[in-house]
């Protein structure tokens, strides 16, 4: 499997692996994907990994989740998501997307947009305005009005699921104690989170009954948003785990809020919350913001930290990942300290 994966990655760095003319080929890696940018299109291939919360280890699973990712994300940005195609191997060495021969993997095909217009890049240049936040809020409100709602106390998205997700986070970060998070910080966050959930059961139950637990984006940060002229494109919504996609809408909003604060744009974070609450009347959302901001910062620290053990990533990138994971865990600690104010 490892040999075939390496052959595929090398093949996809060559122009002949694609049907259309290629301007240049650039490979970007995340902890779960290889993303090939070819000039006009993007091809995203899922890594054959199993992190517990996702499992892409078989070809059938990767095919299933490619289809699911396209279906979900077309609800946000149908202009971007074009479908998914097989990666075929024929002869002894030839590998081509949508070519002859057997399928050895699958690639999601997307329209390539200018990387410099990703919201995280624009934030770095201080080029995101409140009007952009307003457009994001409008898109989210429309999406939440159409998406599935969960009200059963034992359904996905209930407090039971929230607790399960947190316990999974703590279990999966234990091996990284002393690497990306120190033991004292780990224990303090764990204690404060568990205390908050125990003391606020009624609030979680109220949110569920009132219809605020929905199928959400699940990965709503500035690296998954393009801002082009007067248009916003949200992409890369979670498809691989219902437990992460189905949550209180406060968790979605808190993710983008946390991300804006991580990038030193607290005024945009505050505007996001104010605008969303004004437009929806969801005043209880603010009672859960620090809880879910903590969750989102913690998860970012966890998943970025996974990269330090990825054999396909060079050492300098592993160090960068480790350093960034530490910053996210420190941010999570700050939010955890604030939870005392809500008890």
- The parts where pLDDT drops under 50 for at least 5 residues are none
Mean pLDDT: 94
Biggest pleated sheet = 6 strands, antiparallel
N- to C-terminal distance = 51 Å
CATH topology term of the largest domain: Aminoglycoside 3'-phosphotransferase, Chain: A, domain 2
The CATH architecture designation of the largest domain is Alpha-Beta Complex
H and E order: HEEEHEEEHHHHHEEEHEHHHH
CATH superfamily descriptor of the largest domain: Aminoglycoside phosphotransferase (APH), C-terminal lobe
Going across the major beta sheet, what is the strand order?
1-2-3-6-4-5
What is the number of beta strands? 10
Helix content: 40-55%
Rough outline: globular
Count of structural domains: 2
Helical segment count: 12
Structural class, from helix and strand content?
A: alpha+beta
Strand content: 15-25%
- What is the rounded Rg? 20 Å
């Amino acid at each position: 499997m490892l040999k075939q994966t390496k052959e595929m990655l090398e093949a996809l760095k060559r122009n002949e692996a694609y049907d259309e003319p290629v301007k240049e080929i650039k490979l970007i890696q995340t902890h779960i994907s290889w993303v090939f940018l070819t000039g006009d299109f993007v091809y995203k291939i899922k890594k054959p990994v199993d992190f517990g919360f996702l499992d892409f280890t078989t070809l059938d699973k990767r095919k299933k989740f490619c289809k699911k990712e396209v279906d979900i994300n077309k609800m946000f940005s149908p202009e971007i998501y074009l479908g998914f195609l097989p990666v075929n191997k024929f002869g002894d060495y030839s590998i081509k997307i949508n070519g002859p021969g057997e399928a050895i993997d699958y690639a999601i095909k997307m329209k390539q947009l200018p990387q410099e217009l990703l919201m995280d890049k624009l934030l770095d240049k201080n080029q995101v305005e409140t009007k952009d936040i307003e457009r994001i809020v409008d898109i989210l409100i429309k999406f939440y009005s159409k998406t599935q709602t969960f009200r059963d106390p034992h359904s996905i998205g209930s407090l039971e699921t929230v607790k399960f997700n947190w316990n999974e986070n703590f279990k999966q970060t234990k091996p990284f104690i002393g690497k990306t998070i120190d033991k004292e910080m780990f224990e303090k966050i764990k204690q404060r989170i568990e205390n908050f959930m125990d003391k606020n059961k009624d609030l979680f139950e109220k949110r569920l009954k009132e219809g605020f637990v929905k199928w959400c984006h699940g990965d709503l940060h500035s690296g998954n948003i393009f801002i082009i002229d007067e248009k916003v494109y949200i992409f890369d919504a979670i498809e691989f785990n219902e437990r992460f996609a189905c949550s209180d809408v406060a968790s979605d909003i808190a993710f983008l809020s946390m991300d804006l604060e991580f990038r030193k744009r607290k005024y945009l974070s505050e505007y996001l919350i104010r605008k969303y609450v004004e437009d929806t009347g969801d005043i209880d959302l603010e009672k859960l913001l620090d809880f879910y901001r903590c969750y989102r910062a913690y998860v970012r620290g966890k998943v970025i930290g996974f990269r330090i053990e990825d054999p396909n990533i060079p050492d300098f990138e592993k160090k960068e990942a480790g350093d960034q994971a530490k910053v996210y865990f420190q941010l999570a600690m700050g939010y955890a300290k604030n939870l005392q104010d809500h008890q």
